[in-house]
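Readers of this paper often ask what the protein records in our data store actually look like. Such a record has a labelled line for the sequence and another for the backbone structure tokens. The tokens are whole numbers drawn from a learned vocabulary of local backbone shapes. We quote a single record here, exactly as it is kept in our systems:
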Amino acid sequence: MLETLRRLDQGQGAELAVRYCELHLLALAGYQPQLFRCVQCRELLKPEMNFLSLERGGVLCPQHGAHQAGTSVLPLPVLKVLRFLQTRPWEQVSRLRPSVEVNRQVEALLAQYIAYYLERSLRSPVFLLRLQQGLQNAGAVPVVSDEDP
């Protein structure tokens, strides 16, 4: 957590830093999502359209997720980013440049996943968004995005 706060303070890819922290905190708490094997059949997931099950704690292959209630389609680029965040050190993650849309999808997915396991929504994302918008509106501090060169 302290490293994440340092990264945010230094403007080091804020969105990725927060997602990286979220995934690693989930792992420490025992709620790491299963992103490499189908949570039902345990087969390695292939690079195709898979499905996320919050209830089951991870990804289902097309055979087991396509017609199961409570699953949602997991786009391949989102799965790849999540896997990268989960398995690579920050030095490698900090060089990752996902699209704005993939960033949004990863953020939304992790927010859903965390809210499901905490059984409540977090207030900190709303607070951080308001803080960022306030700084942008005041022109006090330029906000560095992951898309900046």
Remarks:
- Confidence is low (pLDDT under 50) at residues 140-149.
- The first strand starts at residue 50 and ends at 53.
